Amino acid sequence: MTDNRQLELFAGFGSEKLNVAKNDAGGSWHGIFQPNNQFSMSLCECVNFTSIHQMPVVSTCTIESPRDICCYYRLGNRTIDGVVPHFYTPDKNLVPFINDPYGHYEKIAHHKVIIGLDISIKPEMPIPMKMAISFYNKLHMAWMGTRGTIVVPNVVVDPSIIEACLEGYPKHSVIAMNSSGIGNDKRAKENWQIIYPYVIEELQPLHILRYGGKQPNEVEGISTYYLNDNQKSSCYGRKWFIQ
């Protein structure tokens, strides 16, 4: 565990309203990333932290590859055998899970397995904000694990803070990675080519649940690709989609 002063710095990072910029097919919007300090400190008390950047420690996952993955809100109160919910949806839908984690956890608590939170780290964000989002993504994953949910670590990395982003993720684990926001963006493609081999080398994953379009130079032998269910007409991963 880490000292309370450091936790308060992270947990209090949202005391001033921070704009999370997002560009997608629907245009630009700004979501308010404002974690509740009381909730944040409560979550921090439940998990362990690394010694360098004091990032939350996410548990190892060793599940078999699911038959399919589906966004949590599409499943609602249902559980479907072989289908694991994910958080690959615009950030504005995920911020409430940070602002009120206990209230929103009840919406997903009936799932035994879930892929971890996926709030985006945008290139234009200042470094402290990138660090905070990396912290909160992992904090939510680590905390859900303490409540009995099996969490597939969802690896969210920014090249400018790559070591801090990876800190806290388990080695030799099943992980998840999302490339659905890359599209034809040159910068995003370049960033992926920096991030992906670093993740493979540092985490040495047992298997990768891949959401979004297949990128060049991926290790296909340890990857299972899933259809982007946020775009019904999308062909992302269709060739490798498990029926």
Radius of gyration: 17 Å
Overall structural class, as computed from helix and strand content, comes to alpha/beta
**Main sheet: which strands, in order across?**
7-8-9
The fraction of residues assigned to DSSP E strands is 15-25%
* Number of discrete domains: 1
Give the biggest sheet.
3 strands, parallel
Write the element-wise H/E pattern from the N-terminal end onward. HEEHEHEHHEHEHEHEE
Spans where pLDDT lies below 50 across 5 or more residues: 1-32, 232-243
Portion of residues within helices: 25-40%
How many helices does DSSP assign? 8
Integer average pLDDT: 82
Overall geometry comes to globular
What separation lies between the terminal Cα atoms?
43 Å
* Assembly type: single chain
Count all strands and give the number.
9
Explain this structure to me?
The protein is built from eight helices and nine strands. By secondary structure, it is an alpha/beta fold. The protein has a three-stranded parallel beta sheet with strand order 7-8-9, with no helix packed on it. Strands 1-2 form a two-stranded antiparallel ribbon. It starts with a helix and ends in a 17-residue tail after the last strand. The model is unreliable at 1-32 and 232-243 (pLDDT under 50).
